[in-house]
Amino acid sequence: MEPTEFGPDRYGRSFADVYDRWYPADGATGAAVEVLSALAPEGAAVLELGVGTGRLALPLAAAGCAVTGMDASAEMLDALAAKDPGGTVARVHGDVATAGDWPDGPFDLVVAAFNLLLNLADQAAQARCVRSAADALAPGGHLVVETAAPALPDRREQRLDVRHVDATSVVLIATDADPASGTVLGQHVELVDGGPVRLRPWRVCACTPADVDRWAAAAGLELVARRWAWDAPAALDAADAPVGVYRRPG
Ligand SMILES: C[S@@+](CC[C@H](N)C(=O)[O-])C[C@H]1O[C@@H](n2cnc3c(N)ncnc32)[C@H](O)[C@@H]1O
Asked: For ligand 1, which residues put their CB under 6 angstroms from it?
């Protein structure tokens, strides 16, 4: 995979060195692991798409699941490897939007957490990813998708927000949101006293839980549960709830 400005490896190249510091495991992580563990008992084969540094994959492996983590970013996979000297998570370098990159299944559980799906270039790539996930599932297996979609403005909007301030550093977030294409282009701009400016670019394409429902149904999956958050179940007809659980019949 050749690195390109907004290719599949972009997010990882931008954030691998700060990911664990900026997005540390928290209560939501514990709740997510609990939900996923209930779908994947000890010994179950689990595939996490966009595994990152293993925030979810490492605790699932520690709970006895046979976990494979796929990621397009060599930097993210290296960060995961450094935290997992025993190799409890099998690492696969590949693009989840490219069916040929996927590891052999079948899997009892496939997980697309946080903003993995939004990182894909467009909705066609997102739909392909959901199709590949359905194909990788064992009969009776589950796909869990978190759709942390940004709220797009009614018209194109450029903004500057502050993420972090302390005595010697500032992290600003510059975004250009375009509702016509459904995309947000962003830069985390890191300024450290006496150091060079560090730009961390990213790009997301919005999709809604209803889009994921549609792609999952087209791939033969049935919606079996929804959640407003990892620790907050929702009714099945709560169409906006960002976590969806889908099952392959069998
Ligand atoms: C926000 S991180 C989430 C990491 C982890 N799942 C978590 O919940 O902490 C998104 C991950 O998806 C990966 N990613 C983005 N686009 C991808 C693609 N097309 N194929 C595979 N991985 C991708 C990034 O490299 C990054 O590691």
From this structure: 8, 11-12, 50-52, 55-56, 70-73, 76, 95-97, 113-116, 119-120
